[in-house]
Amino acid sequence: MPVGIKLVSGNAHKALAGAISAHLGVPLTNATITNFSDGEIQLQINENVRGADVFVIQPTCTPVNENIMELLLMLDALKRASAGRITAVIPYYGYARQDRKVQPRVAISSKLVADLLTVAGANRVLTMDLHAGQIQGFFNIPVDHLYGSAVLYEYIKKRELKEPVIVSPDAGGVERARNFAKRLKASIAIVDKRREAANVSQVMNVVGDVNGKDAVLLDDMIDTAGTITQAAEALRQKGARKVYAACTHAVLSGPAVGRINSSCIDELIVADTIPLDSKKEECPKLKVLSVAPLFAEAIKRIHEESSISSLFI
After folding, report:
1. Which of 30, 115, 242, 287 is 20 to 30 Å from 98 at the Cα level?
2. pLDDT above 60 (res 131)
3. What is the DSSP string of 264-299?
4. What is the maximum span of the chain, computed from C-alpha positions, in angstroms?
5. pLDDT score at 1
6. Residue 157 annotated in active site
7. The one catalytic residue among 6, 193, 213, 242
8. Which of 8, 5, 24, 16 has the alpha carbon at shortest distance from 88?
């Protein structure tokens, strides 16, 4: 058990926090989170954390705003309790898609959340697969950015796919697909699509050879599953033998599960950065992989002040 580490978890993903705790051999710090009748959150840390190296585990998944507020309150409480260092462990960083002005008079929400975390008391951030890597620059504190591809790769490698081809569902994910394909010694392809509105997409064309191959659609997140299911259909039409989909963050909101169940996707492989207990029951195609060992190792190395660059793959 690493001496001096304290692990604190909010309500967002207790299962992941518990798994990280088990891997580290460090019990979760006792904390009480309650709500007033109007929904206002009240939080108290019930153990001494003075001088401790504290890691607060809280993905900002749905309900996004409530989980962000919980995280901010935990950071503030720990700061006021004289914690030695506070690291916000955010497996899924909400508001990451709003990282620039795409229209007049809109907020850059991911920058605002970064500022809130810093002001609340975070000394550093540990996260995974930000929607845009440059979001790291929104923070004026150190950010350690892990990649879910390390977990997805090990599973897909064991599948022994026939002539695998890694497919990016849009132009923005080409670098991710290229890096993954290089490790798997696979070819790559791109689905060219035109987005007509938020959460609505139209597949246009497949660039690359997928005929007779096992295709793996690789993305950082799947939200309503419109893009990924349309891309899978396009790959089938181009002769793909099997179609797998893989992502780090399975948001799976709205009609996502129904779309996946009725799609030609053979298996959807995801990490557990977001709680998925109910989704696993609803979606038999879903395969959930744990990122707890990866986060546990990163936390251990941060605490020991040793390099974690070997984990950035």
Report:
1. 287
2. yes
3. S-SEEEEESSS--HHHHHH-TTEEEE--HHHHHHHH
4. 61
5. 59
6. no
7. 193
8. 8
